[in-house]
Amino acid sequence: MSLYVIGDLHLCFSVPDKTMSIFAGWQDYQERIEQNWHEKITDEDTVVLAGDISWGMSLQQAAPDFHFINSLAGKKIIIKGNHDYWWTTKKKMDDFLLAEGCDTIKILHNNHYAYENYGICGTRGWVNMPGETQDEKVLRREVQRLEASIQSALKENLEPIVFMHYPPIFASNFNYDILEVLYRYKIKDCYYGHIHGRSAHELCITNTYDDINFHLIAGDYLQFIPEKVA
Fold it and tell me: Which residues pair with 189 in a beta bridge?
């Protein structure tokens, strides 16, 4: 039994015109995701999917992608990405997944999930990159959601591991509001996606910074192979 993570699946089974295969490094990516998953993941494993799951614009449109994820081995825990336009309230998502028979998928939103002695915590995060518009109200909500997730794990005496979609640090840009939460709760590991392309990957923090181990787990960076966490 192991814990894995991968971000940015960008599945498009219901909207094939949104395929990422037109970009370098993304050729046949949905087939590669399935093959790599079958080779690495078992039904006893848990995989965190760190945002940008489906190009579907609604739960109904994203359903084929959820069914694909559900058909893969293991338990899956999903956080929101900036392109997950289908995202709605946790209750609506939980009810929809239940009705669709997608019983291996769970939503991480203001909560945590236990894995051995760890608490799987996280939220989408928010932008800190040049050219991306900030929104202080959205940022405050993301900070609150991250803290609520971490606190829920600590209440059960679990060690939080944080998964996000946006990077708290990118190049020389720092999201200090998010980082302050990570520092205050002495988070040891933070996994994030969102960043695509070799030149952008080179600007990412992928080592220990201020006592936090940062891990880039965007799908194309991992060559669409889930990375083992624990």
Answer: 213
Please state at what angle helix 176-184 crosses helix 136-154, rounded to 10 degrees: 10
- Secondary structure of 78-102 in HEC code, one letter for each residue: EECCCCCCCCCCHHHHHHHHHHCCC
User: How are beta strands 118-123 and 159-164 bridged, if at all?
Assistant: parallel
Strand partners, 190: 162, 214
52: left (phi over 0), alpha (psi -120 to 50) or beta: left
Predicted confidence at residue 136, as pLDDT, reads: 81
Q: Are strands 212-216 and 208-209 parallel, antiparallel or unpaired?
A: antiparallel
Q: At what angle do helices 90-99 and 59-71 cross, to 10 degrees?
A: 60
Q: Which pLDDT does position 128 carry in this prediction?
A: 67
CB 165 within 8 A of CB 50: yes
Residues pairing with 115 in the sheet? 118
- For each of the chain's 230 residues, which pLDDT tens digit applies? 999 999 999 999 999 999 999 999 999 999 999 999 999 999 999 999 999 999 999 999 999 999 999 999 999 999 999 999 999 999 999 999 999 999 999 999 999 999 999 999 999 999 866 566 667 888 999 999 999 999 999 999 999 999 999 999 999 999 999 999 999 999 999 999 999 999 999 999 999 999 999 999 999 999 999 999 99
CB-CB neighbours of 149 under 10 Å: 26
Q: What are the structural domains, with CATH classification, of the chain?
A: 3-228 (3.60.21.10)
Q: Whole-prediction pTM value?
A: 0.96
* Residues 12/65, Cβ–Cβ less than 8 Å: yes
